[in-house]
Amino acid sequence: MSYLNQLLSLSSKASKTISRISSSLSTKRPTSEQEPLSDREFLADAYRKILGRDVDEDGLKHYIKLLQTGYSRTDVLMNLVQSDEFINKVLKDNIKIQNLRELRPDNYYAVDDLLQPNKALVFSVETPDDFDWLEAMILKHGYYEKPGVWGFRIDKDKKVMAEIMSAFQPKRALEIGCANGTILQCLHEMNIHCEGIEISTMAIDKAFPDIKDNIHHGDLLELELSEKYDLIFGLDIFEHLNPNKLHDYLDRMERILVDGGYLFGNIPAFGEDPIFGTVFPIYIKEWERDIAQEKPFTMLHVDKDGYPINGHLIWADWHWWVRQFEQHGFQREVEIETVLHEKYDAYMERTSIARKSYFVFSKRADRQKTEAIAHDISSRSSKFL
Questions:
Q1: How is the chain split into domains, by residue range?
Q2: Which of 111, 117, 149, 334 has the fewest CB atoms inside 10 Å of its own CB, making it the most exposed?
Q3: Is 257 within 8 Å of 232 (Cβ atoms)?
Q4: Alpha carbon 225 to chain centroid distance?
Q5: What is the pLDDT of residues 55-93, one digit of tens each?
Q6: Is residue 261 classed as helix, strand or coil in its secondary structure?
Q7: Residues 173-226: tens digit of each pLDDT
């Protein structure tokens, strides 16, 4: 069944889902006194039942403010149901995709999760060819074209990340894996020339008009790029690369980054990093063996269909990641990282702690320039926090 037909078949399911959730939301406590729920309690209940998660601090403040100025609780429910997050959740839960476990059942099994009472389903990488197979399956079955994978709106997170990229004062920036260009659009509005690379046709089709022509459709290893850049950044993209090709990608980035340029990577790096601490704890015992052998993890946590969670092909600890960049001549700039963490960590811990797991590297950057960037970051207030 095509994605379009699957979407059409979801209309009745979505209506029933929304009706069920709305009817299950109570405005009163389940007590004999039937005391009214406070706004905070109401929002916590709504987030759990509609979005399936705890309410975040920014969302809580946003909706409490609206409720205090006349916004009704029904308005809140409709706003949540119409949000990208809820729509993506419904689509992701209902759109079908080829189940990889049916194709290679011997590679899949459950292992203990050290942080949860439930088992974790994993794909066991027996040879490097297994990474190639997973990558091929992700592309063949349109994992990145599947509705529900992307979020296309410019929100506070995108504005903050664009502000961080602007701190490097780039004349020409390149984003690897730019989706529909939310951050490129933010940088464009700051009068910073920016380009992007994206493999998803669906994402590019939804690109912002101002920057759509600046998006290169394809793979970094195959594209002809006539210019060089003084900032290259990838936000939650490096882990999607095939580890068998990672050195090719880093080599290409080194060649298109000018001397003195910077490379920023937001990467789910496991373990206790000396700068950002532990954002992604080790929760599968077998990973400890791979860390000791200084290699990426060979047990990949997967979803019910057998695809690595969020399409991540590289699962590795922070030290392994740093070593890969250093092998290509990139130097970690801990001074810049430190001031960025001092400025943005409180926000990231409230909204998306995964954002804290990032690295700043340079290609033979001038020490005075690096110090000037660090000073500028620490001395300027954020426009968005």
A1: 3-94, 156-379
A2: 117
A3: yes
A4: 25
A5: 887 788 889 988 998 889 888 888 888 776 776 677 666
A6: strand
A7: 999 999 999 999 999 999 999 999 998 888 899 999 999 999 999 999 999 998
- As a three-state string, the secondary structure of 183-217 is HHHHHHHCCCEEEEEECCHHHHHCCCCCCHHHEEE
CA dist 362 and 330 (Å) reads 5
Question: Measured between alpha carbons, how far is 23 from 262 in angstroms, rounded to an integer?
Answer: 52
DSSP states along 59-94: HHHHHHHHHHTT--HHHHHHHHHTSHHHHHHHHHHH
Picking from 215, 177, 212, the residue whose alpha carbon sits closest to that of residue 195 is 215
Query: Strands 229-235 and 172-176: what pairing?
Result: parallel
Tell me: the pLDDT tens digits for 340-355?
A: 999 999 999 988 999 9
Residues 6+ apart with CB under 8 A from 318: 269, 270, 271, 272, 273, 357
Tokens describing residue 67: 């409720």
Indicate whether 4 pLDDT > 50.
no
Least confident of 49-53, 169-173, 244-248: 49-53
Token pair recorded at residue 303: 């979803």
Q: Are strands 358-362 and 331-332 parallel, antiparallel or unpaired?
A: antiparallel
CA distance 48 to 54: 6
DSSP state of 50: I
Let me know if 244 is exposed, middle or buried by CB neighbors in 10 A (0-12, 13-18, 19+): middle
Determine which of 20-34, 132-146, 206-220, 279-293 has the lowest per-residue pLDDT on average.
20-34
| Rounded-to-integer distance, Cα 246 and Cα 225, Å | 19
Max CA separation in the chain (angstroms) = 71
The predicted-structure confidence for 311-341, as pLDDT tens digits, reads as follows: 999 999 999 999 999 999 999 999 999 999 9
Which residue has tokens 């705890």?
A: 54
CATH superfamily ID and name for 156-379: Vaccinia Virus protein VP39 (3.40.50.150)
Q: How far apart are CA 318 and CA 315, in angstroms?
A: 10
115 burial type by CB count under 10 A (0-12 exposed, 13-18 middle, 19+ buried): exposed
Q: Determine the Cα–Cα distance for residues 9 and 12; give it in Å rounded to an integer.
A: 7
Residue 220: Cβ within 10 Å count: 22
